[in-house]
Amino acid sequence: MPEKRKIQLIVNADDFNLTPGVSEGILEAHDRGMVTSTTALVNVPFRSEAIREARKRKRLGVGLHLNVTLGKPLLPPEEVPSLTDGKGAFGKRKDFSGVSRVELLLEFERQIERFSEIFGQAPSHLDTHHQIHDDPAVFEVMRFLAFRHRLPVRLSRCFGKAEKERFGAQKIPFADFLVPDLDPARAWTERPLERALGKMTGGIYELMCHPARCDARLKRISSFNLPRESELRALCSREVLKRIEKRNIQLMSYKSLKG
User: Fold this and answer.
1) Which residues of the chain, if any, have pLDDT below 50?
2) What is the CATH classification number for the domain harbouring 211?
3) Is 123 domain-assigned?
4) Contact residues for 124 (Cβ-Cβ < 8 A; gap 6+)
């Protein structure tokens, strides 16, 4: 009989540095729960205490949450006009076909540079705020950056067989499966999380999540606020952690995936 593949799991908490409560919740979900990885926003004001606390946690992988849908660009707005509104801020969008790929590349490159300035190291991997690299135009730029900087990226709808072969040829590792977060109205709770863990068979999985301590700023800027506290409780649940141990699931981060 063929040897059964082990189950390896990256649990990535998005939005580090979005608000103090978000960063606090993510660190708690790492210290007390199953979170092994996070991705940080760097185009919003960063808080030195949160960065310092993240850097203390040597087992926590920290990647970059590339963002062109919230806040303002790091580059002057006049250098990236197709990404911004008339007031120099990013706007939420579903279609990136009209966006300049050159401008997107320049802003993403600046965010990678900013990450290194803040954390003193390269990101463990790349993903995007609002999972916009499901869009082919954004994914094309992400692929270019991944190859240039030798960085893994989160799976997306664009990551089919041909893309996996391209990344394999570049010897850049990637997860085999992405377990996306639930609808924000529900979020992760214990039972759905246990079901998701129970369905894992073999290979490398990334589970996306958004734990947080819901603070006043989060309530102001995001409709996805209180359910994040439910996710925090689920990710720290003793029963969920027992399920991981019982199934012999190996928790890891992109940092360890890169070797």
Assistant:
1) 1-2
2) 3.20.20.370
3) yes
4) 37, 61, 62, 63, 151, 152, 253, 254, 255, 258
